[in-house]
Design a protein that fits this description.
The protein has 435 residues and is an alpha/beta fold. The protein has twelve helices and 17 strands. Bound molecules: iron/sulfur cluster (2 copies).
């Protein structure tokens, strides 16, 4: 089948491990760890202190600019404000709340009854106060994106979920597609596009059947089935697949008249506007060959990954690696004490059988990585110059345009850890270091 965007790969999707199962709610955690950084941009400043009693949904951190507020996901008492391990591996200031299991709701959680008559500004303000970010993992502020002043002809709701193993968005659409559609319309009320497209890959048959029913009478929302290919869920790739328009690195989709919102983000917008709920929980796929009972779970933000894995039966003995996210773009966890945050769509537990790492890593210059990079980069040279810490060459090879999709590493016959290298190379460029 013709590819609708440049490059990409088609790995085994492994979604059957967790797809099609009932959505479960995990048991409330005794304690939640709420990091002040769950978004791209400056960290939030804590608004509570040790000893304070907080309610579920209460804003407990906020800041200026790109900063997005964070909220308590349980009611209880603040027992610590201290650095804790974040899924990104760093120590990040976090608010630790001891759950009182009273589920006392904050009084700000009030539904907006006249949702259809809310103005653009009112919807954007509600999205911000609810702490909504790109829930597909991008974690960019949704209110900032929606507020971009540009003529948008096509609003794209992204249901591609192209990474192997992950079925969180698929589960959301199988169980709550109506809410997602309401969320898309609310975002459209703010963005004012000419046309809306709900884009989904053709490997999600049950969700597609549900959407076909619900969208039958929605003239302005087109359901677009796309051939399954990774990384079609990336904004640039999806815009090209849906509209044929190419976005050059550094440009936003809005420069070509598009805006892309993940379907879980649309669901969060519905909940914020129609139910008055900020982001305090999300659907997480717990999957992989090294977890006993894979599935999808509704998880309060701040729940330690260990407890979420426990809800899925725990790890098997031959666990090799636990990843926050998917196998292509996710981050390996040094331990499993880090919490689920707004952008955690999956916890992937891989067994030793999936260990494809090659201790004798040498580039054989086959050039395969060049053919799959969706950003038209030259991974083999980026790898060489990262090792040499040659910042000038890394800039010439546009390493900062790398979206860390992992297509090159997937295709590499030498199994080189290319993405890990590029993360280091990008950091070198950002810091302007030179050996
Ligand atoms: S990880 Fe970076 S270099 Fe490799 S294919 Fe993706 S965008 Fe290209
Ligand atoms: S695919 Fe791997 S081995 Fe082949 S040129 Fe690229 S980095 Fe080298």
């Amino acid at each position: 089948m013709k590819h609708l965007f440049y490059g990409g790969v088609h790995p085994a999707d492994k979604k059957a491990l967790s797809a099609g199962l009932a959505l479960k709610k995990i048991e409330e955690p005794k304690q939640v760890i709420i990091p002040m950084s769950q978004h791209i941009g400056a960290s939030a400043t804590p608004l509570v202190a040790v000893g304070d009693v907080v309610k579920k949904g209460q804003k407990i951190g906020d800041g200026e600019g790109l900063c997005v507020p964070v909220h308590a996901s349980v009611s209880g008492k603040v027992v610590a404000v201290e650095p804790r391990r974040h899924p990104n591996g760093k120590m990040v200031t976090s608010i630790i709340i001891e759950n009182d299991f009273q589920n006392t709701l904050d009084t700000t959680m009030i539904p907006h009854e006249e949702a259809a008559s809310l103005s653009r500004e009112e919807i954007i303000a509600i999205i911000r106060e609810a702490g909504i970010v790109g829930m597909g993992g991008a974690t960019f502020s949704t209110s900032v994106k929606a507020a971009v002043d540009a003529k948008i002809d096509t609003l794209i709701a992204n249901a591609c979920e192209c990474e192997p193993y992950i079925t969180a968005d698929d589960t959301l659409l199988r169980t709550n597609a109506k809410q997602v559609i309401s969320g898309i319309k609310l975002i459209a009320q703010a963005v004012k596009p000419d046309h809306m497209v709900l884009a989904i890959e053709d490997n999600k048959k049950e969700a597609i059947a549900e959407l076909k029913k619900l969208l039958a009478n929605e003239e302005n929302i087109e359901l677009r089935e796309l051939p399954t290919r990774y990384p079609q869920g990336g904004e640039r790739q999806l815009v090209q697949a849906v509209t044929g328009r190419e976005i050059v690195p550094g440009q936003l989709p809005s420069t070509v008249g598009c805006m892309v919102f993940n379907v879980a983000t649309c669901d969060a917008v519905y909940k914020a506007v129609c139910l008055g709920k900020p982001v305090t929980e999300r659907i997480v796929t717990v999957t992989g060959e090294a977890v006993k009972n894979p599935g999808n779970f509704i998880v309060p933000t701040g729940t330690p990954m260990e407890e979420v894995i426990g809800a899925a039966g725990g790890l098997t003995e031959d666990v090799w690696k636990v990843i926050s996210g998917g196998p292509m773009m996710g981050l390996a966890q040094p331990d499993i004490c880090a919490p689920v945050i707004k952008g955690t769509n999956a916890i992937l537990c891989l067994s030793t059988a999936q260990n494809g790492e090659n201790p004798n890593q040498t580039c054989i210059r086959c050039g395969k990585c060049l053919t799959v990079c969706p950003t038209h980069l030259q991974p083999l040279y980026m790898n060489v110059y990262t090792k040499k810490k040659d910042v000038e060459a890394l800039e010439q090879y546009h390493i900062l345009d790398c979206i860390e999709c992992g297509c090159c590493a997937y295709e590499c016959p030498a199994k080189l850890p290319l993405v890990e290298q590029f993360r280091i190379g990008k950091q070198l460029v950002r810091e302007g270091k030179k050996s």
